């Protein structure tokens, strides 16, 4: 073994220990092993049940570079049977070296022979190195083809290279197992996040798809931003780790709604159900009292009819105002007149047709929430921050708490809870805010308003960005350009 081989082995060790993406790890492993053994072709298999599945294929002569991007080569898996050389190497946990496959009678090389006949390739020497972890668990096989001498001639794989490749394969197996453990832990965390997010959405039939929609839009919008940068020859703004962190923030942005009372979160009208029922009951009492007064002679027939008509008009006004998105001055004036009406009950007490509490709720100019209720609703972002502070997030997700809890901050400082402005608001938060507002505007499952057509919602975003200074104009432009909502689906 020369100095170059030693340097290559050290290089492989560093690369294996640093890589956390399984696809890139496998690709780097096969590439480095092929360089180390100075061979022309190679295949990396991973064990899947009772078969070996192709993961990475490289053949320099044929220009074949398949796998490495997460897509398996289009090759039938190799059954874990003793007649297959690579399978045998794994079954017996030993390296197998064949100087010339066409002269070997021990294993079935019909596959390589057929490949050579179809492509014109010449398969000669072959080496299969099993990958097993410390516990002896079988993970896969490295299969190398056609070792080359310095002159480019095919030769058998040198015996001294076997121990080196076995050492590398053993280290690789441990690294692959560790990466799989990390992926399993991460997926467990993701599953927990999705369950918690679903719990928030499923609390309310009016909010059941909100987070899933945002995640789907965000996933495609980030892809669009990355592709646009790549097309311009620039570095993608959201590589894998940053992209994953932002999407995790989207999934967790409304986690604080777990503690918001449903009667506020799901409030479809200005009056609470008990208030609405109490008002209608009061109008019915007025009509019944008018009947008693008519029968006792204290009220004329026409007087009773006028009173009944007036209660019906009051009911119609309250029903309309109760669910109207925005109250005009005319409606507010009509409510004020209604609130000024009184009646005398059976105990000779003067009572209002509309209680002060009912009047205050019905007089909400926009939406269905009172100032107190809105404050409670807005507290969900503070609760989100508080809840996420209690989770030991890894370094990869170190910004999730900040980004998830900041999605109601606006560039002009009018947002909440901290009233951040301008550069105080990270780009990631600006993106989440756009996603949140867009889905809220277009959602057709909200009790207090119908969903807007997409183009109108985009116009609202543009106004908020360019005229009101609340949103990032460039991000709104790119979001509009991306059309990422056209692929709505449950994903991530």
Could you characterize the architecture of this molecule?
The protein has 492 residues and is an alpha+beta fold. The chain is 53% helix and 11% strand. The strands form 2 sheets. Strands 1, 2, 3, 4, 5, 6, 7 and 8 form an 8-stranded antiparallel sheet that branches. Strands 9-10 form a two-stranded antiparallel ribbon. The longest helix has 44 residues, at 159-202. The radius of gyration is 35 Å and the shape is elongated. The protein starts with a helix and ends in a 10-residue tail after the last helix.
Secondary-structure map:
Layout: H1 3-18, H2 22-37, E1 39-48, E2 51-59, E3 64-67, E4 78-79, H3 85-91, E5 96-98, H4 110-119, E6 126-132, E7 138-148, E8 154-155, H5 159-202, H6 210-231, H7 240-252, H8 262-265, H9 273-295, H10 301-323, H11 329-340, E9 342-344, E10 350-352, H12 356-362, H13 371-378, H14 380-389, H15 400-405, H16 427-442, H17 454-466, H18 473-482
Antiparallel strand pairs: 1-2, 1-7, 2-3, 2-4, 5-6, 6-7, 7-8, 9-10
Helix pairs in contact: 1-2, 1-5, 2-5, 6-7, 6-16, 9-10, 10-11, 16-17, 17-18
């Amino acid at each position: 073994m020369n100095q170059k081989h030693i340097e290559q082995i050290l290089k492989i060790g560093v690369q294996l220990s640093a890589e956390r993406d399984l696809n890139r790890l496998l690709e780097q492993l096969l590439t480095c092993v092929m360089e180390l053994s100075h061979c022309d072709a190679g295949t990396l298999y991973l064990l899947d049940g009772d078969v070996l599945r192709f993961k990475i294929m490289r053949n320099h002569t044929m220009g074949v570079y398949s796998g490495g991007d997460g897509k398996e080569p289009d090759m039938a898996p190799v059954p874990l049977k003793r007649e297959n050389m690579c399978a045998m190497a794994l079954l017996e946990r030993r390296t197998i070296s064949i100087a010339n496959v066409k002269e070997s009678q021990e294993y079935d090389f019909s596959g390589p022979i057929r490949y050579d006949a179809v492509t014109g390739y010449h398969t000669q020497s072959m080496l299969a190195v099993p990958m097993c972890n410390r516990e002896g668990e079988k993970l896969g096989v490295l299969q190398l083809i056609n070792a080359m001498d310095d002159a480019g001639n095919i030769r058998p794989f040198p015996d001294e290279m076997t121990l080196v490749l076995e050492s590398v394969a053993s280290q690789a197996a441990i690294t692959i197992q560790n990466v799989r453990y990390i992926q399993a832990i991460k997926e467990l965390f993701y599953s927990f996040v999705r369950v918690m997010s679903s719990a928030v959405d499923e609390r309310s039939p009016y909010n059941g798809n909100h987070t899933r929609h945002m995640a789907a839009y965000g996933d495609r919008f980030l892809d669009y931003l990355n592709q646009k940068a790549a097309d311009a020859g620039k570095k993608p703004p959201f590589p894998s780790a940053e992209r994953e962190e932002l999407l995790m923030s989207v999934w967790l942005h409304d986690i604080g709604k777990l503690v918001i009372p449903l009667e506020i979160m799901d409030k479809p009208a200005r009056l609470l159900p008990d208030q609405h029922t109490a008002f209608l009951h009061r109008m019915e009492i007025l009509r019944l009292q008018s009947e008693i007064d008519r029968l006792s002679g204290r009220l004329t027939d026409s007087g009773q009819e006028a009173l009944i008509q007036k209660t019906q008009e009051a009911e119609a006004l309250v029903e309309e105002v109760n669910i109207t998105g925005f109250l005009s001055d005319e409606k507010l004036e009509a409510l004020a007149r209604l609130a000024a009406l009184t009646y005398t009950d059976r105990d000779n007490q003067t009572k209002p047709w509309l209680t002060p509490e009912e009047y205050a709720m019905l007089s909400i100019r926009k939406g269905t929430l009172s100032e107190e209720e809105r404050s409670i609703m807005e507290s969900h972002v503070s609760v989100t921050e508080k809840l996420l502070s209690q989770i030991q997030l890894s370094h990869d997700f170190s910004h999730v708490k900040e980004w998830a809890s900041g999605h109601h901050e606006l560039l002009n400082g009018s947002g909440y809870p901290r009233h951040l402005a301008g550069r105080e608001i990270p780009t990631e938060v600006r993106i989440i805010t756009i996603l949140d507002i867009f889905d809220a505007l277009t959602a057709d499952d909200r009790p207090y308003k119908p969903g807007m057509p997409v183009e109108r919602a985009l116009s609202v975003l543009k106004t908020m960005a360019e005229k009101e200074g609340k949103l990032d104009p460039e991000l709104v432009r790119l979001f509009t350009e991306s059309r990422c909502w056209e692929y709505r689906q449950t994903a991530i």
